[in-house]
């Protein structure tokens, strides 16, 4: 498992943290029910005290958002892309296929098809009216 933490001490105001917390919880709750290749599984999410060393909890203020996810072996997208020079047509085709797969997953997530309820992501935009 992987644990990601967003700590309120990281240069954000309490108001900004509250807005981020709401979005964080919405997105994490949606992702708990998504089971599809290309989407990392979210196991749990919660808000708690900031991460601290043993014995320092009583001196801390602030909050932290915690996301517990499945571990995925491999490179992140930035490192994966850095390994490709795009010098050959084969490399360019590989990058285009990967970007197409990424776009398909993002489109699927934002379409509302990702969850049994059909709930759309609050960050998704509606298609333009015709």
Descriptive labels:
alpha+beta, three-stranded antiparallel sheet, 130 residues, 3 strands, disordered C terminus, globular, Kinase-like_dom_sf, Phosphorylase Kinase, domain 1
Describe this structure in words.
The protein has helices at residues 14-31, 77-82, 89-111, and strands at residues 2-7, 42-48, 64-69. The protein has 130 residues and is α+β, with helices and mostly antiparallel strands. It has a single domain (2-111), classed as 2-Layer Sandwich (Phosphorylase Kinase, domain 1), CATH 3.30.200. The longest helix has 23 residues, at 89-111. It is globular and about 60 Å long. Residues 123-130 have low confidence and may be disordered. InterPro entries: Kinase-like_dom_sf.
Instruction: Return the domain count.
Output: 1
Write the H/E string, N to C: EHEEHH
Number of helical segments? 3
- What would CATH call the class? Alpha Beta
User: Per CATH, what is the topology?
Assistant: Phosphorylase Kinase, domain 1
In spatial order, strands of the major sheet run 1-3-2
Instruction: Look at the helices and sheets and give the structural class.
Output: alpha+beta
Largest sheet data = 3 strands, antiparallel
Low-confidence stretches: 123-130
**Cα separation of the termini:** 44 Å
Relative helix content: 25-40%
Radius of gyration computed on alpha carbons: 18 Å
Described by the principal axes of the CA atoms, the overall outline is globular
- The CATH architecture designation is 2-Layer Sandwich
Strand content: 5-15%
> What is the average of the pLDDT values?
81
Count of beta strands? 3
């Amino acid at each position: 498992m992987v644990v990601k933490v967003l700590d309120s001490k990281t240069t954000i105001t309490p108001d900004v943290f509250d807005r981020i917390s709401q979005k964080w919880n919405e997105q994490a709750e949606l992702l708990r029910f998504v089971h599809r290749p290309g989407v990392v599984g979210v196991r749990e999410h919660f808000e708690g005290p900031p991460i601290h060393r043993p014995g320092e909890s009583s001196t801390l203020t602030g909050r932290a958002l915690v996301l517990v996810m499945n571990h995925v072996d491999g490179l992140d997208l930035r490192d994966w892309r850095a390994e490709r020079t795009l010098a050959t047509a084969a490399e360019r085709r590989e990058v285009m296929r990967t970007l197409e797969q990424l776009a398909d997953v993002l489109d699927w997530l934002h379409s509302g098809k990702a969850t049994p309820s059909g709930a759309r992501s609050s960050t998704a935009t509606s298609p333009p009216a015709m």
